[in-house]
Design brief:
- Pfam families: GntR, SBP_bac_8.
- It comes from Paenibacillus hemerocallicola.
- There is one protein chain.
- This protein has about 450 residues and is an alpha/beta fold.
- The protein is built from 16 helices and 16 strands.
- The strands form 4 sheets. Strands 3, 4, 5, 8, 9, 12, 13, 14, 15 and 16 form a 10-stranded mixed beta sheet that branches. A two-stranded antiparallel sheet has the order 1-2.
- Helix 2 (about 25-35) packs across helix 3.
- The relative contact order is 0.15.
- The mean pLDDT is about 90.
Length: about 450
C-alpha cells in the first residue's frame, strides 16, 4: 500500500494527473499494484488526508487544486550563468505553476546548521568543493539522501556520496581546458594547440603570440582553487602523511610541479604583470583580444556564448601526467525542508530530459549524464568547434581530493604556495612550513 501511495503522490505532484482529473478506479488501482480493494481505499484515504485528492461520492477520486507553495533555493553567484538559471526556473514554474521558487544568492557557502535563514532553505546548488566543506563541518546530515539517475556519470555521483548515500544530485560538470584565440594563431602562422602540448610548448607559443601592442600569449587566475592545484595533480603524486604531519616533499615531483608553476606565472614574456581578481576578468581580457590563451572551464565559457569571437578549446598542457581538474555542480535538498515534496520535484525536473535539454540548448555547460549524441552546433550560441573534446578527457579528470589533503588545510597550503611563487619564502622554508603548518590531529 505504501508503494501505491508514493507512486500516486509523485504522479500527482509531477502533473501526470492534474487538478480536476480523476484517478483510475479502485479496481484498476488494485490490479495495477496487486492490492485488495480494501488496501487501495486505505491508501486513497491517506492521499485525501494529505489534501492531494478528494472523494466524490459515486464518482471517484479527483485531484484537488493545489494551493501555492514557495520553496527557497540558495545558489552561488555564477550559477545564473552556468545553467541559465532564471530561464530554467521559469520553465519549471510553467510546468508546476503552483510552486514558486525564491532564489537566494550566496557569496560563500552558508552555514546550514541551526534554525537561521540558511538552515531553513529548501535547496542548495553547490559544487564538489562545497560538499567537502560541509563534510568538514559535520553538516552533511542536514541533506536529504537522493537517488542517482541510471545514466549519470558514476565518477560525478561519487563526489556527492557520504556513508553510501548520495546527498546531492549532479547537474553539470566541466574539466579545465585551454581556451585559445584562433585568429591570433592564424595571424602568427602557428599550429593550434592539441593534446600533446606540454607547458614548455605553451610557453614557446605564448612568447610568439605576445606582441608590442599590449597583447599577451597566456594568463590564468592563479589564486583560484580550480587552477593552481592542476600543477600538483599533474605531478602524478600526492601528499603523504606521517602521524598527522606532511612528509617532506623535497626531491618529489610535487615540488618540481610547484617550481614549474612559479616559472610560468613569473614569465613576463607571456603574461601581464596584473593582479586579476577573478576568472571573469581574465575572460573579459580574452574576449577583447588582449590575451591569446587562458585556462577556462566550460562553465566559464558561457561568458563567450553571445560573442562573435573566433575561439576554440584543447586539453590543457601537462607536466608528468595529462591530468586536469574537474568541477561538478549539484543540487541538495534540506532534510528539514517544510516543502520536501516540492523541493524534490525541482530536483527531478532538473535531471529530467526537459531540464537537461534546456541546459544544453541555452548554455555551454555539460549535463552530468551520458548523452546519445553531441553537437558543436548550438543555434544562437558561439560554441567552440571542439566542444565534444571533453569526452576524450574524462580519463584525466581529478579533484582536489586526489591530492590526499583535507579541505580544511587548503587555505594554508594556498597561502604558503603564493608566498613561494612571490619569492617571499624560498624552497627550504616552503617545505619546512608545509610540514609544520599543515599538521592535522
Amino acid at each position: 500500500m505504501e508503494h501505491m501511495v508514493n507512486v500516486l503522490r509523485q504522479e500527482i505532484l509531477r502533473g501526470v494527473y492534474t487538478a480536476g482529473d480523476y484517478l483510475p478506479s479502485e479496481t484498476a488501482q488494485a490490479e495495477r499494484f496487486g492490492l485488495s480493494n480494501k488496501s487501495v481505499r486505505k491508501g486513497l484515504e491517506q492521499l485525501v488526508a494529505e489534501e492531494l485528492i478528494e472523494k466524490i461520492p459515486k464518482v471517484g477520486s479527483r485531484v484537488k487544486r493545489r494551493g501555492e507553495v514557495t520553496i527557497t533555493l540558495a545558489y552561488g553567484s555564477t550559477n545564473l550563468r552556468d545553467m541559465e538559471q532564471e530561464g530554467l526556473l521559469a520553465d519549471f514554474q510553467q510546468r508546476y505553476p503552483w510552486i514558486k521558487v525564491e532564489a537566494k544568492p550566496y557569496r560563500s557557502l552558508p552555514d546550514l546548521d541551526g534554525d537561521g535563514e540558511w538552515g531553513r532553505t529548501d535547496l542548495f546548488i553547490l559544487n564538489n568543493d562545497h560538499f567537502e566543506t560541509l563534510q568538514n563541518r559535520d553538516e552533511l546530515d542536514r541533506l536529504e539522501p537522493l537517488e542517482a539517475p541510471k545514466d549519470a556519470y558514476p565518477f560525478l555521483v561519487s563526489q556527492f556520496v557520504h556513508d553510501g548515500q548520495m546527498l546531492a544530485q549532479p547537474l553539470v560538470f566541466s574539466p579545465i581546458v585551454l581556451c585559445y584565440n584562433k585568429a591570433h594563431f592564424r595571424e602568427c602562422g602557428l599550429p593550434e594547440p592539441d593534446g600533446s602540448w606540454t607547458w614548455d610548448d605553451l610557453v614557446h607559443n605564448a612568447e610568439l603570440l605576445t606582441n608590442d601592442s599590449g597583447r599577451y600569449g597566456f594568463s590564468f587566475h592563479l589564486p583560484d582553487r580550480n587552477r593552481w592545484p592542476i600543477f600538483l595533480l599533474q605531478s602524478g603524486e600526492r601528499f603523504e602523511w606521517d602521524r598527522g604531519r606532511l612528509r617532506d616533499i623535497r626531491g618529489t615531483k610535487l615540488l618540481d610541479s610547484i617550481r614549474s608553476c612559479k616559472r610560468l606565472v613569473r614569465n613576463r614574456a607571456i603574461s601581464p604583470l596584473f593582479m586579476w581578481e577573478s576568472n571573469g576578468e581574465i575572460t573579459a581580457m580574452f574576449r577583447t583580444g588582449k590575451i591569446s590563451m587562458m585556462l577556462c572551464s566550460y562553465l566559464g565559457m558561457n561568458m563567450l556564448k553571445h560573442t562573435d569571437l573566433e575561439y576554440d578549446i584543447s586539453p590543457i598542457p601537462f607536466l608528468y601526467e595529462p591530468r586536469t581538474l574537474g568541477i561538478t555542480l549539484g543540487i541538495a535538498v534540506n532534510r528539514q525542508s517544510a516543502h520536501k515534496d516540492e523541493a524534490l520535484l525541482l530536483v527531478q525536473y532538473l535531471v529530467s530530459e526537459r531540464g537537461r535539454r534546456y541546459i544544453l540548448d541555452h548554455t555551454l555547460s555539460i549535463p552530468a549524464y551520458r548523452q546519445k549524441s553531441i553537437s558543436a552546433v548550438k543555434p544562437g550560441l558561439n560554441c567552440p568547434s571542439r566542444f565534444a573534446i571533453y569526452r576524450e578527457m574524462l580519463f584525466s579528470l581529478r579533484t582536489q581530493r586526489d591530492l590526499n589533503l583535507p579541505a580544511a588545510v587548503f587555505p594554508a597550503l594556498s597561502n604558503l604556495l603564493r608566498q613561494y611563487w612571490a619569492d617571499l619564502i624560498d624552497e627550504r622554508e616552503l617545505c619546512e612550513r608545509l610540514s609544520e603548518e599543515l599538521a592535522v590531529e
